[in-house]
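Bench notes, afternoon.
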Amino acid sequence: MKKIQYSVAMMKNPVHPEEPRKAYGNLQLTGLVSTDELADHIAHHNSVFSKGTIVGILAELGVCMRELILQGYKVILGTLGTFAPGITCEGALSKEAFTAQNIKDMDVNYQPGKSFENLRRDAEFEKTTTRKAQAAALKAENEGLTNANWAEDGD
């Protein structure tokens, strides 16, 4: 199994900016997986459904979940997790003064299911350089430099 890559950067604590900078890990994404790629991946896991069928199911799942969430339903997808509607509001001076106009945004709250328990226990990590350092190395290589000198400062 591929390891999850992380880099380390010196950063301030945003909650307590007066504290000295500390080293924190930054997860480095491996990449993106499209719906088409996910469907292909599912189809290769001994699925009885074709990739095309899976793409169609995933597309309809998104449409139907949106519809149900807009009706105020919480959608439970087994071990995948629960998706529930949420709102962001502007406060009013009293209950009587609060109206639907005070609701400024609506989003989806996700609660992971059992499939996502124990992620830390099951994950393997591998330290790598920051994306900034990788970009500097690639730039130096493309410019024909053989002895690049750059720093990883976390900024």
